[in-house]
Amino acid sequence: xxxxxxxxxxxxxxxxxxLAQLRERDAAEEAVQETLLAALESQDNFFPANPRCAPG
Length: 56
Known about the structure:
It is a single chain. This protein is an all-alpha fold. The protein is built from 2 helices and no strands.
């Protein structure tokens, strides 16, 4: 399960990556927000043992 502590721990890394790719802070922050929201919404479909993270 994804929790708030994990999100806050990973957010700076995701933001740095997004900034490097997008070179615009607002766009990078929005991309990170959308990514984290998508992760939260689909966490029931995440299977760490499966490299494709999908039901087999």
